[in-house]
Amino acid sequence: VDWYLFGILIYEMLLGDPPFYSKNEVELINNIMSAPLKLPSTLAKTTKSLLTGLLERNPSTRIGSGPRGAEEIKEHAFFAEIDWNCVQKK
Q1: What is the pTM (predicted TM-score) of this model?
Q2: Cβ–Cβ under 8 Å, residues 54 and 62
């Protein structure tokens, strides 16, 4: 699983556009590579924390990329109300 793209998906679902969007392809690439992540002040702290962790450019420090993998993400406060056993059982 690519946790960075998971972060992009969550960002877009919550805010309506991808985080580094530009109609200009060169600008889009530059934004992805180096633009700061902009998060609205209206987002909850837990949401900001999750997005910041998932959209970390350095894969070695990105949430979910350590030895605990998905468990680190599942334990994040953003997902506190999710019963992962129920999700697994569908």
Answers
A1: 0.90
A2: yes
Q: How far is CA 26 from the centre of its chain?
A: 23
pLDDT category at 1 given cuts 50, 70, 90 is: low
Number of other CB atoms surrounding residue 46 within 10 Å? 13
Task: Answer whether residue 50 shows pLDDT above 90.
Answer: yes
Residues 6-32 have a mean pLDDT of 95
Token pair of 20 as six digits: 């580094």
In the block, residue with structure tokens 């894969």: 59
pLDDT at residue 78, rounded to an integer: 97
Give the burial string for 49-74 (b: 16+ CB within 10 Å, else e).
Answer: bbbebbbbeeeeebbbbeeeeeebbe
Quote the CA–CA distance of 2 and 19 in Å, as a whole number.
Answer: 16
H helix or E strand, kind and range, residue 12: helix 3-15
